[in-house]
Amino acid sequence: MRRLALLIILLAPATAFAQKAETEVLHDGSFVVSTDVELAPEKAKAVLDRVKAAWEYVSSELDWKEKDVLARDVKLHVLDDASMKTRFGAKVKGHASGKDDFFVARTFLDEERSARTLAHELTHLQDRRHLETKGARLPHWLTEGRAVTVGRGYEAKLGISDKKYGDDIARVASDVSPAEAKRILEDDAYVAEKKMPSIFRMEAAGFFFLEFVRVKLQVEDLEKKLGRVVARVGKGATLEDAFEAEVGTKLSSARSAFYEYLEDVKGPKRLEWPAVQRH
């Protein structure tokens, strides 16, 4: 049986396993653009200008300094749809990998809503660049929740409205239970995303929790404070200590207050804040 399986692999077309080679088409400062599709120089520059604009917005929102987040190159990979599907699955149009690489589908860049994805994924790159201590890590609800916030903020800045995405987030905010919230914020906070029943619900619930902290706990400049939380964790602090030091309240207390809110306030009544209202 093993010999037969090996024979099948050896006889399979090489194209089934090969990935299209990328070519570097632009290197501008700390940004590098490579692609596996035809991308004229002027088009590559237009793409990079959009990425730079999103990068600058993220840096400003998170209060990251250029000397920190651009200490190494940002590698932008513009791929055709088939390449993106092969690498990341059919639903993924943009993906941040590690601290340096951002992959995006070429055709997706023609869509207005891609601006949100640029800011969302570049938030991940900037956060990861601050995780300096070996073993430093952040829970999914925090990394995704703040990336959702920044991505939607950038969308609003550009005057873009994605009704479906807004409605999907509002739906999760309306129906997430205290038990599901606890599982996302505590029990499965560091579980591999691919093992989660719904990655989108994790992202939306994390975003909703952060909005609760901002609105109900009245924490001003939350994004910048969370940026400093990330930096503290990146240097070896625990999330709990970093959160209390920068946000001004214990993370455990904030979570408990959130669970109580979810228990007391049901359905559409939760959609009282602009960030989570249906569009």
Walk me through what this model shows:
The structure is a single chain. With 279 residues, this protein is α/β, with parallel strands linked by helices. It has two domains: 16-111, Glutaredoxin, CATH 3.40.30.160; 140-276, no CATH class. It has twelve helices and five strands. It has a five-stranded mixed sheet with strand order 1-2-3-5-4. Helix 2 crosses helix 5, helix 6 (140-157) packs across helix 9 (199-215) and helix 10 (222-234) runs antiparallel to helix 11 (239-247).
Main attributes of the structure:
single chain, 279 residues, alpha/beta, Glutaredoxin
**Poorly predicted sequence stretches spanning 5 or more consecutive residues:** 4-17
Structural class per helix/strand content? alpha/beta
Supply Rg.
20 Å
Taking the alpha carbons of the first and last residues, their distance comes to: 56 Å
Helix-strand pattern, N to C? Answer: HEEHHEHEEHHHHHHHH
Q: Major sheet, described briefly?
A: 5 strands, mixed
Number of domains: 2
* Helix count, DSSP H or I runs of 4 or more residues: 12
Strand proportion:
5-15%
